[in-house]
Amino acid sequence: MSALTVELPEELHKKAREVAAAKNLTIDALVTIALAQSLSRLVAEPYLEERAARATGKGLEEFLAQAPAVEPAEWDRLPEGYVPKK
Q: Which residues have CB under 8 Å from 25's CB, separation 6+?
């Protein structure tokens, strides 16, 4: 483990203390969780963008061909009058 000293605005620190107490966490645990979640989003975005840029669609037709040619269940249908966004 590493120690890190961080200066926070008083209101943010107060809110962090409240949330940590409500969730029965230490401030350290709350900050660790929040930082891990934030970093996972920051790191995942470029990764997903890079993958999307390399996508060719090759194999999509084959994949879709495996789906059964049946009407969806009533609960899984698009609402009446649905128009997709362009």
A: 19, 33
Query: Over the stretch 41-55, which tens digit does the pLDDT of each residue have?
Result: 888 888 888 888 988
User: In this structure, what token pair is assigned to residue 19?
Assistant: 């949330």
Cβ neighbors of 13 (< 8 A, separation 6 or more) are none
Q: What is the pLDDT of residues 3-34, one digit of tens each?
A: 999 999 999 999 999 999 999 999 999 999 99
**Whether this model's pTM surpasses 0.70:** no
DSSP 8-state class, residue 13: H
Q: How many CA atoms lie within 13 A of 75 on its CB side?
A: 0
DSSP 74: G
